[in-house]
Task: inverse folding
């Protein structure tokens, strides 16, 4: 299973598209804030996971 964060953004969309050429969509998960924006990924067979990806205190991300 491969999890792509920010999957509805420009980079995340490009990453999902490239990965779909390498692995089955059933092996991909997309972490998104807005499930409505990811509906097209769900239709392609990508698993959608809703979550908040904002780091409020960058010092804790290290």
Result:
């Amino acid at each position: 299973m491969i999890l792509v964060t920010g999957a509805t953004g420009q980079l995340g969309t490009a990453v999902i598209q490239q990965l779909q050429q390498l692995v089955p969509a059933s092996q991909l998960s997309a972490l998104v804030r807005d499930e409505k924006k990811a509906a097209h990924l769900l239709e392609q067979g990508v698993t959608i996971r809703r979550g908040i990806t904002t780091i409020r205190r960058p010092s804790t991300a290290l």
